[in-house]
Request: fold
Amino acid sequence: QVQLQESGPGLVKPSETLSLTCTVSGGSMRTFYWSWIRQPPGKGLEWIGYIYYSGSTNYSPPLRSRVTMSVDTSKNQFSLKLSSVTAADTAVYFCARHGCSSPDCGTTFDYWGQGKLVTVSS
Amino acid sequence: DIQMSQSPSSVSASVGDRVTITCRASQGINSWLAWYQQKPGKAPKLLIYGASSLQSGVPSRFSGSRSGTDFTLTISSLQPEDFATYYCQQANSFPYSFGQGTKVEIK
Reply:
């Protein structure tokens, strides 16, 4: 059973960089795409970007200038950095695996981490 | 970018009721649509992919359908564990977008 777990600071000061890591267990990262998705308190879901196990990335246009993702398959981890944060970046951040119970399902998310609440405040 | 419009924003229903939630895409996405269920404090759970395919382990009372750019999630007989918020997501093209969510509440 694949499991994902987010880790990192739960409090970040304005203008600083948010850093989170997702650790994957119970399966390999190889051949999969991996995404970060966030959810402000009481609001809906926003896709941030994805990274392929080989390291190629694609970021959501509104966040592209501030987002960096990286992967370390030897540790079964991938990471998110979001720079110059403001209160609007306060959210629960989820990591997720692309997939479904079929070889062909577009960009669907079948396994998710439990989520990490990150608050931006001084 | 593709916008996803989900309705209603909330619905009150009783156990045993049939519940229908709709999602409309701003442009064609073929059948690349997924539905998720989210309970408070938990991560979303994939229910339906490809507009109408049931994810492994999901009860058969959940079903999905497509008519052009309109998509529907149906719960045939609402169970106590189904009270949650449901989101649609277009899986067709970057950037991937979600609907605003539909909260299914106890009547």
Remarks:
- The longest strand of chain B covers residues 19-25.
- The mean pLDDT of chain B is 97.
- The two ends of chain B are 36 Å apart (CA to CA).
